[in-house]
Amino acid sequence: MNVAVYGRPVIGSQTSFCETVLTILESHKCKVFIHRPYFNFLKNSIKGKYELFDSYEDIKGNVDFLFSIGGDGTLLDTILLIKDSNIPIVGVNAGRLGFLSSVSKENLPLAVESLLKGHYNTEVRTLLRLESNHPLFENDNIALNDFTLMKKETSSMITIHTYLNGEYLNSYWADGLIISTPTGSTGYSLSCGGPIVVPQSESFLITPISPHNLNVRPIVVSDKNVISLEVEGRGQYFMATLDSRSATIDSTYQLAIRRESYCINLVRLSNENFLSTLRNKLNWGLDKRN
Fold first, then answer.
1. 220-265 tens-digit pLDDT
2. Containing H/E element for 191?
3. Which candidate, 106, 107, 99, places its Cα nearest to that of 266?
């Protein structure tokens, strides 16, 4: 089994955690490819010879799984390495919540054995794609969680004119707007009052951030729609984000969000699914009165 390993250079206990991951993979005779910047961070702490990779082109067709070591933010980074290669992502949680990164240090040996035996499931997750009339995020214009458009250099609210397939929806007077996939429904959108949406729902969520009008609520639309945005405000510049990446734009930008033509696959062990993760990680439906 060929495995690619990705992580963020984080000083602390993650170094020893990654050593454990590599040791377990090697004990099962796996060929390991390590993302070059991550290897440079770890090279004084790990032993052995590893193949290195830099980009999507290096691992497409060459590895069976990509191991993301860290938290959910780290896993979001891997989308740009996977793209349309169909390489399943194994999220190994070295962070806190680990909603997407579901494999813990304790069940890592079992997880590797399950992968070797084929005892696992994959969850298909949709992506969104951002298009703009000016260069923005270049070839990194996809996201697993969400796109956000927010105020940047003023405390005043901004106005975001929003359209579905060219038909006017609303002008949001707010601190910003979140366009999220079902995967992103448990992230920033949820903290702003958006609903939880199951991964298979084929939808987008449009969630305002601190709207001025309290009767403006989050709305769920089909992901067959193209969502177009125009922004204006007292400030000259605004903040646009795709997952953990951000860029500064101005009011001349015209933005469009659509569903990407391909999906990615998240590995789930046989005893895991989206609903059990909701209950275990978000305490969804848990009665605290007892």
1. 999 999 999 999 999 899 999 999 899 999 999 999 999 999 999 9
2. helix 188-191
3. 99
| Residues 105 and 189 occupy one common structural domain | no
User: What is the full DSSP assignment across 16-53?
Assistant: HHHHHHHHHHHHTT-EEEEEHHHHHHHTTT--S--EEE
The CATH number for 197's domain is: 2.60.200.30
Query: What are the angstrom distances between the C-alpha of 140 and each of 162, 262, 272?
Result: 23, 14, 30
Single-letter residue type at 14: Q
Is position 72 annotated as part of the catalytic site?
yes
Largest CA distance in the chain: 60
Cβ atoms of 157 and 95 closer than 8 Å: no
In terms of residue numbers, what domain contains 11?
Answer: 2-118
Catalytic residue, candidates 58, 72, 223, 243: 72
